[in-house]
Amino acid sequence: MKKSIILIFLMILIFTGCKSNKSQDEGLNEQWMNDIQLNNGEKWNANIETTEGVLKMQDILKTHKTSTIEDYHELANQLNEVKNKVVKECTMKGASHDNLHIWLYPLIEKVSALSEVSTIENASVLKNSIVENVNAYSKYFQ
């Protein structure tokens, strides 16, 4: 009986640990960099609202202080508001739109993960990944 209780307890710990690591890994998914393409070697044309939204996100990332978990959660909220506006106002079509989504979906995952982060270390890693993601926009879109 004692062994089965210990076994159940260990299984719960393993399951919880795996679940936690999985969500962190998903929040840092960088596969999009292998999937995104240029338009025959050129940047895709993006609608002005999308580009303005990305510039706004860059500004938020540069100016928002992040010293506490609450700061990181507020950063995630601000980025999420801008992201929602970008999605709502997107008028892009075709391959440019498809590639925008390749860039955008991982960003959405990272911002969502940042809103739930519980340690400064994880928050800092996520923020750095978000900065890289947002800054990469200009490599693919104009």
Question: Could you explain how this protein is built, in words?
Answer:
With 142 residues, the protein is mainly alpha-helical. The chain has a single domain, classed as Four Helix Bundle (Hemerythrin (Met), subunit A) (Up-down Bundle). The protein is 78% helix and 0% strand. It is built from 6 helices and no strands. Helix 3 (48-63) packs antiparallel against helix 6, helix 4 (69-89) packs antiparallel against helix 5 (94-116) and helix 5 runs antiparallel to helix 6. It is globular and about 45 Å long. It starts with a helix and ends with a helix.
What is the name of the CATH class? Mainly Alpha
Largest sheet: none
Query: What is the annotated CATH architecture?
Result: Up-down Bundle
- Name the average pLDDT: 87
Note the run of SSEs as H and E.
HHHHHH
Q: How many helical elements?
A: 6
Topology of this protein?
Layout lengths: L1 H26 L4 H4 L12 H16 L5 H21 L4 H23 L3 H21 L2
Helix pairs in contact: 1-5, 3-4, 3-6, 4-5, 5-6
Label this structure with key terms.
Four Helix Bundle (Hemerythrin (Met), subunit A), 78% helix, mainly alpha, 142 residues
In short:
The chain has 142 residues and is mostly helical.
